[in-house]
């Protein structure tokens, strides 16, 4: 599972605080126009090469998950203090019986290509992920939803000669678009904590353009709806992001540019905060 939603942006926020309070009055190559200029500053953070292209429902490891959490915002997000999930793109998530949920979106949130995030962008993304021929690694996360068994079939002998039977449907009966900002989710059975799952990367929306490309093409130049957007990706070297100025939710970042350096080894610092001054980096490798 990738890092919890907004763990990444919390890290960015911490970094911004360092830029603002760190070495004021002097220029720093890591902060653009100077340490106090957070609006145009830049930071570099540690990362690892994503194993696959950056498609939320197909990303299960930390290297890619870190980027997904920077680039996408889900229906809910998880506070850093461990409290209950809070609405993010969702304006309301309501239910009378814990089986049928009505999800209302905040109006006019946008993807990085400028298109508006609509209810269909969640429904289409969830159906794509659950449809087993697409091979999304997070497809099983939709098993709570009515109709999942009709879109998701299993290989009867794993990697053997037999193939998984063709699903009966390409869409789940439990998903219904009501209007541009509202959709309905019907579960197989009552599940009162279903909304708490909806900040995980599997449940992120996908823009319309995703469905005009292959997942591989999209994943190398991804378009999310989060506080930072994609700029460039040099395999095994670095991935560049920049602030999405049309982002309207509360966790908008103040720093402008973010570079994720891709190391062969995971890195750890001597302090619990990853962005405090005076730390020394030490590598920790798993083999």
From TrEMBL:
Keyword Transport: no
A Gene Ontology molecular function term of the record: peptide transmembrane transporter activity
InterPro entries: SBP_5, SBP_5_dom
Signal peptide: 1-20
GO biological process: one example: peptide transport
Pfam families: SBP_bac_5
Keyword annotations from UniProtKB, A to Z: Signal
Domain of life: Bacteria
Name the record gives this protein: Extracellular solute-binding protein (Family 5)
């Amino acid at each position: 599972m990738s890092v919890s939603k907004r763990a990444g942006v919390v890290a960015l926020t911490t970094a911004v605080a360092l830029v603002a309070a760190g070495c004021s009055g002097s220029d720093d190559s890591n902060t653009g126009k100077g340490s106090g200029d957070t609006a145009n500053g830049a930071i570099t953070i540690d990362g690892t090469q994503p194993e696959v292209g950056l498609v939320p429902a197909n990303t299960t490891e930390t290297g890619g998950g870190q980027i997904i959490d920077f680039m996408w915002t889900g229906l809910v997000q998880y506070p850093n203090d461990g409290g209950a999930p809070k609405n993010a793109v969702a304006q309301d998530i309501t239910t009378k019986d814990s089986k049928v949920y009505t999800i209302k979106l905040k109006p006019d949130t946008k993807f990085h290509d400028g298109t508006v995030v609509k209810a269909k962008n969640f429904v289409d993304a969830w159906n794509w992920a659950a449809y087993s021929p697409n091979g999304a690694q997070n497809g099983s996360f939709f098993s709570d939803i009515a109709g999942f068994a009709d879109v998701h079939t299993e290989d009867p002998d794993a990697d053997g000669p037999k193939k998984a039977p063709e699903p009966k449907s390409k869409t789940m009966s439990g998903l219904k678009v009501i209007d541009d900002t509202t959709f309905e989710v019907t579960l197989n059975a009552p599940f009162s904590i279903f909304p708490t799952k909806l900040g995980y990367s599997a449940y992120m929306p996908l823009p319309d353009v995703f469905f005009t490309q292959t997942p591989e093409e999209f994943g190398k130049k991804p378009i999310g709806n989060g506080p930072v957007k994609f700029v460039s990706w040099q395999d095994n070297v670095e991935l560049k992001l920049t602030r999405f100025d049309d982002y309207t939710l509360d966790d908008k970042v103040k720093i402008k540019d973010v570079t994720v350096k891709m190391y062969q080894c995971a890195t750890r610092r001597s302090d619990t905060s990853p962005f405090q001054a005076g730390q020394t980096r030490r590598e920790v490798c798993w083999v």
